Amino acid sequence: MSSKTKLFLNWAETYQAGPAKVGGKGWNLGRLVRYGFPVPAGGVISAEAYNLFMEENNLMSARRNLSDNITAANVGEKAAGQSLAGFRAGIISGTLPPGVEKEIASWLAGSGNPGRPLAVRSSASLEDSGVASFAGVHESFLNVTGLENITMAIKGCYASLWTPRAISYRRKFNILDEELLPAVVIMDMVMAEAAGIGFTCDPKTGRQDVLVINANYGLGESVVGGMVEPDEYHLCTDTLMPQLINKLIGKKEGKTVQKDGGGTVFLSKDTSENNKGGQVLSDEDIVKIALLIQRVFEALGGGEQHQDVEWVYNGRDFSLVQCRPVTSLPRYTYPELKGQPDYWSNANTKDALPMVLSTLTRKVVAGLIGGIVSAPFRAVGYPILPGLKYMRVYQGRVYMNMSLMQWEYFDAFGFTPAEINEIAGGHTPEIQIPPGKKDDKRAVRRRNWYKVKLMLAISKFQRKAKQEFAKTRKQAVKWFNCDLSSTSEGALLEELEKNNRLAVAYTNIPGMMNISSGFPLKMLTDTLEKSFPGKGSALANDILTGQGAITTAEHGYRLMELAETARKESAAREFFNSVNYEAFLWEEMLPDGSAFKQAFRAYLEEYGHRAVYEGDLANPRWRENPTYLLEIVRSTLNTADSAKIRAAQREKGQKAWREIRKGVSLFRRMLIRYWSGKAIRGMEMREEAKSGMVGMALPMRVIALDVGRRLTDRGVLKRKEDVFNCSFPDLAAILAGHWDGRGLAMLVKDRKVRNKNMASLIAPDVIADETPRHPNAAQVTPAKRGNSLSGIGIATGRVTGTARLISHPDEGSRLNPDEVLVAPSTDPGWTPLFIKAAALIMETGGSLSHGAIVAREFGIPAVINVPEVMKVIKDSQTVTVDGEEGKVYL
């Protein structure tokens, strides 16, 4: 070690050093300071000082001897205890390296109050990490004053690694002694009026929508050490601001306070002067500390890893003195699912949200998905377990809990796990239904009754849906034209809360519309299958082709018509064919009398709230940046032919009905027409509901951008768009006046790096509990017509063409007319590409995914759910897509 190596690191240096050198506790505190959290002044004695201490005091040999000879089996024996006690005594009697004492003395002197009380706490290299918490295993010393006492406390921290308790913990978790090097945190004591612990989850039940705070008067030792029954406050975190939902006022049998001369003392109620009863924190302060703890969850836990946070309150402000990951949490689910994995799948999310989601969007999406998924069950009165987690973020991407969905749809309506997987698509394993559950007569009657209630509820929601859709369109126009510059920050926070509540309330509509299309489509397919074995699905797809006013398909139809309009107009042709073409100049370059210009304005008025990957608030809406749409018009200027597509759709449907009329009785034809009508209406309303959902979320984007503008003006952020790399707790704390935003720019910078790193990772399709599962690539099967890949055919027809691999709609200019579009997934932003594609192949998707609905509507052959097809097929390779067989021939 260099003689110039610093051994006492300030918080900034602590962050840079990393957990291996400053331990988990120290590094987490350094991270908190970096991101602007209130942490007492202090720093860390690095783990290098411990090794130096061991060498200079000739303790290395004894340490190796203990490591070699003390095992999990003999650690409790008397001889082991004596050996450990002797080694601890050697540590206590040792001398710290001169450099350590000198650096601490310099730090103390620099504060102007070298005799102030300090906390000296162990911070071992794996402590407070995701591997192990070491909670209560190593020693901490509070109210330490003077250099001599600080020195003794540091050695006490070192010695605490060599207690039977600490050895047992390491042996239990297979942690080698040499892996655990102790650093030591030294920080100012806070004059504590109250203190406690906060959990971003409920550690008792495992619920992850509840934040729990324990609080007592005085120092936090009485809470951490379990010496009292503290107050316990529960807050709901589903909302943007935490909502206090329950208070359990503890007995608080005493409190821990600083003792004269150093250390602490526990004062019982009988001996404690001025001991207070009642509630430790006011309701306002409970929400304030809860919001601070939520910020820790987002900043240090990435919104994925729950946190255990120790806090102190001085009567005016809160300080954080420790945070660590929650490493163990009870599983909260239905009894029937216990003993089976939670299967998290991107089957339902890969269409709309395949990318690493922006930080700001995650909380909004979690609330919306939870509302959408649970809507059918709430509508019929099914007893949903409260607080279930339907969505999680894994490496930045969104996954759905398909185990929950498979069980609830079976238990409520009798749908099998296989049927749910078919609708959702993807490659999710099926849960096991407990024996006896399928045929239990009472359960069957209950499911049938729920089905009746569901059909009635669907009709009710369909009747009022059109009115709701109209409201969302008006709201989108209103918010695009909204000026928030004079709105107070408190009012902005209220608007965020209000619009989030409205969006969550609206989820009943898309939730019910989702199932309103799925059930009729299944009944239609089953009815056709009885008369046409093996062809039910293909015929269903054909008779649905071009039959509905599918809003996402209308995007494409209208773009084709726009291209046709532009083709007929000299001003538009001149604009699109110019060598100096710049899409963003369309308003300036096209004359006001241009028919194309007027038609395009009308298009943006109706669909301008949509976007490519519109589920992420960070992505600009088409009305803000229509470049993508104009590029589609430009690339189809000479080829767009909406009449040809409409004619092909009619022919496909008529051909299917001719076949049906020949082979089906009048009664069954009536049944087929009934279910096809229901399926068409269901799909129309499903896609319109999705459009409405995007419109309902629009205000949060508009408000966020205004907040970003304000923070940029203050120098808190570099760009207003950086606001999407902030969490809602970040913004709420600033808008509520709890935080000035100091450290936010650094947090945004680190989040961008983290998101970029996660975006480079290959996303698994399924996660079983915490184990990612990547699907095997589709197997090439020899066949008479050539080697083939198998998937799900969702739009019939057979097309041979050039495969064009498109990973993102922004690459759409590479797709030439009449080529085969090969994509990982598609959301409504991809629809304009469908008007150029001759056929579609997708890696994922189900019968009601966006790609399936639009391909079926346009009548282009489509095969979906072909695992890893983007790796199997090569760009420019000639392929044949057979939508009836569900095969791709190579």
UniProtKB/TrEMBL annotation:
It comes from the Bacteria. The keyword Cytoplasm does not apply. Keywords: Kinase, Pyruvate, Transferase. GO terms for molecular function: ATP binding; kinase activity. Residues 21-331 form the Pyruvate phosphate dikinase AMP/ATP-binding domain. Pfam families: PEP-utilizers, PPDK_N. Residues 816-886 form the PEP-utilising enzyme mobile domain. Signal peptide: none annotated. This is Phosphoenolpyruvate synthase/pyruvate phosphate dikinase.
